[in-house]
Amino acid sequence: MDAWERPLRIIGESFWPMLKAGLLLTVPMAVAAFGVGMVIASIVALMRLSKLSPLRKIAACYVWAFRGTPLLVQLYIVFFGLPSVGIRLGAIASAIVAFSLNVGAYCSEAIRASVLAVPKGQWDAAYSLNMTKWQALRRIIAPQSLAIALPPLSNTFISLVKDTSLAANITIAEMFQTTQRIAARTYEPMLLYCLVAVIYLAFCTVLTVLQGKLEMALTKGR
């Protein structure tokens, strides 16, 4: 029993600080970044669908750049690179900016694809009712495309929750860095990294269940 006493004590002492960091920093940071990212994604998706070639090219270049480079590199550019050109952001603000821009690129493609997936006849039906393009998009197309886009958007959010662990590289004491600090003090990396993996798994499991319920609510009656 003595062999289990120290590991159990470490788990008992470490669980709440790690969970607290997750609830107070990891999840709020992911929610904030995803919210801002969705605004960016919606604008970029509309630009990609625009008939104006310059707008399409600008949006395509943005998506190409952020989907083609590692998120960690983007995080370093915002936190360590921007100060060299006179733009200084705090660690949390830098993380939210980097995560938002990254999420915006990925989610814009999901939104664009979901709009294109709506049958053209839906647009024609809206125009036959004397709706403008924006009225048709808001009243007819957007509700249908939301149900189509929900699975990839939800998957992106779940991935973002896990990707916030990268913020430990720019001194943010979120859940993963809290775990690193405890592991350095207790010399139990295997135990503590497995514990934080379980906490991440619990967060993502809850989000997956919520995703399923939301999908059922949106598709009910269709």
Features:
8 helices, mainly alpha, 222 residues, 0% strand, single chain, flat, MetI-like fold
Describe the structure.
It is built from 8 helices and no strands. The chain has helices spanning 2-49, 53-67, 71-81, 91-117, 120-128, 133-163, 175-186, 189-219. Helices cover 83% and strands 0% of the residues. The chain is mainly α. The protein is flat and about 75 Å long. The protein has one domain: MetI-like (MetI-like fold, Orthogonal Bundle).
The description of the largest β-sheet is: none
Shape: flat
Radius of gyration: 21 Å
Percent of residues in helices comes to over 70%
Quick take:
With 222 residues, this protein is mainly α. 83% of the residues lie in helices and 0% in strands. The chain has a single domain, classed as MetI-like fold.
